[in-house]
Amino acid sequence: MKKDIIYEQGQSVKLDLVNIKDYPLHYHSDFQIVYVVKGEVCLNQFWAHYILQEGEIHIIHPYDVHSFHGISDNTLLILSFDTEYFSHVFPHFGLNLYTTNVQGQPMSKTDLIRDQIFTITYETYKKTTGYSSKINNAAVSLFTALSNYFRGFFIDETDLSFIHKPSKDYYQTDRMSRIVQYVYANYQYKISLSDIAERENLNSYYLSHIFHKHVGMNFRDFLTLVRVEKSVIPILSTKKSISQISQDVGFSDAKYFVKPFSEYLGYHPKEYRTRFAPTILGFADSSYEEVPPNELMPLLISHSPDSEFNVMATIDAVIEIDFNSEPLGPSKLLSENPHALENLYSSFTTSALKDTVSDLSELYKDVNAQEQVIEILQQFVSNPMDFKFPSLPIIDTHKSTEGILTANGLRKPIYYIFELTKELPENIHSHGMNYIAFSGGDGVSVLVYNPSKDNNAVIDIVARNLSSRYKLVRSKLLASATALDYMAQLNFSSKLDPYDFESINAMSRPEVEFEILPAMDMYYSSIELEPYDVLHLQFKKLI
After folding, report:
1. How far out from the chain centre does Cα 273 lie?
2. Per-residue confidence (pLDDT) for residue 350, from 0 to 100
3. pTM exceeds cut of 0.85
4. Most-buried pick from 18, 203, 300, 527 (CB within 10 A)?
5. Per-residue b/e over 509-540, b at no fewer than 16 CB within 10 Å?
6. Minimal CA–CA distance to 438: which of 450, 420, 426?
């Protein structure tokens, strides 16, 4: 029943191009991606049945029991990835759960996956100079994209299929991924929601709520589902008793195993064994044939490294921070900040505005307050080691709108950037096209922004070697929620009552979210920033 995948020497990826009529139930210890080049095929995976059509991608995880049945004349591109090799690159590689649901839309995030699939295929067949390294690099990029965009899933309780569910709540996606990894690694032991809640530093009731919201079933049912899934291989490939198998996969008694197994798979475990054991690989015949590579060449050429596709389907930015690496050096930013914010706003009152601008609508009609922030951050990125804030006026006047406060005393986005500098560690850790990372003491901070005024940006954050628990504070300064935007709603009145004044200052503050991170080798997060948005990630080590 187990299929051993043999890799060429020095290769971590194996490629098969096949036409399948029938391929019996089997599993393997390696990770596979199936791309349908043409035709239609039915993939039976445990209790779920997927009809895969041309252009679709499906993930087969290590130890997934599955079979294929051709519905029409088909060509499948099957990529196998060596779990042992990639486990050294991606911790918990074999335990991550990915789901894809390809709609074939241009410029979708799935194109990032398809792009790397074709790069691997192109290099496998063409064997250009350094092809082995190119294949491995493309595979790493592929799994980075999978981890960033395709870990969100939702279980359809009608047929128990795993549906790709994109989510902008990347933080909960990360949390659900860790919990799923833990369940798959420890399903045979006693696991309770309260234990996991303690690991995640959460209240059990809250964790139960968000798990059901994000996964589609409650935690206990999901744990039962995983245990039933893990029982299929020994039922089909061994002569162990049903009672012994139920204990091996974590059930305290066979009666608690038989009922969910029958519900999920439609048969009593003994009947399932009798019916399907003869249909596994090694007993049942397979019907498939290899397809010559020339059938794939037109597709490969259109997606070759020289095509426009690769230029289009790219991630906007990938920021990698290694907590163990040495910083570049001290920042001059903190010691030479020209403004003492501690006293700036506490001493400021609206009574000081008697002689300031009266027609605010005219003053701010062409002003984008967040643009000032972006310009300063771009100067910072271009010369991070020696950057010092420019000397800015405290308040806007009819001569200048470069002040830290509006003409009627509200806090502008640049105020919060100055305020933020008080929290930054003392050293520049690293920097790139649109980010700066700081480190020092017991923390790491990453300041990242979207420099585009028209397009959203997807920023992938990869933090490595988190050797202890951290509190992660995310502060997002929204370009769509500045004091000027709220002033516009009040027709730029120069005189605000105290409630409006305080409300605007409160609403224009950065949005803040918290998360407690356990010690981990690698932390992924994918953030979508709207035009001119600024994000601050602050990792604070917990004792």
Report:
1. 39
2. 43
3. no
4. 527
5. bbeeeebebeebeebbbbbebebbbbbbbbbe
6. 426
